[in-house]
Amino acid sequence: GLDPRTALAELGGPELAVLAGVALGAAEARAVVVVDGFATSVAALVAVQLEPAVQSSLVAGQRSRERGHDAVLQALGCEPLLDLRLRAGEGVGAVLAASLLLQGLALRRGTARVDR
């Protein structure tokens, strides 16, 4: 198999390289990375292959209907938050998943205050 950089250069476009770089940078900053759809998931997989620690910052926003998306999610070890089977490609699943994550965080923070 090709190493991740060679595969990205030969098979991916500049947008996948940028997305992989965003995932690498976000993980380094200890930020959560919500991936949505085939292209962002492939970019995240490249980032994980370059730096395995990236995997712990990934959240699969949704499972799309795009061919191959299930296989990439399995390779990432990510179970999607939503199973919307969208094919829109505009990040709708990521926006919905991020909203769900933020609501869960707010609920958790509210619960922590009550416990004190």
From TrEMBL:
InterPro entries per record: Nict_dMeBzImd_PRibTrfase, Nict_dMeBzImd_PRibTrfase_sf
The UniProt GO MF terms for this protein read: nicotinate-nucleotide-dimethylbenzimidazole phosphoribosyltransferase activity
Q: Which PANTHER family match?
A: NICOTINATE-NUCLEOTIDE--DIMETHYLBENZIMIDAZOLE PHOSPHORIBOSYLTRANSFERASE (PTHR43463)
UniProt-recorded name of the protein: 5,6-dimethylbenzimidazole synthase
The organism of origin for this protein: Modestobacter versicolor
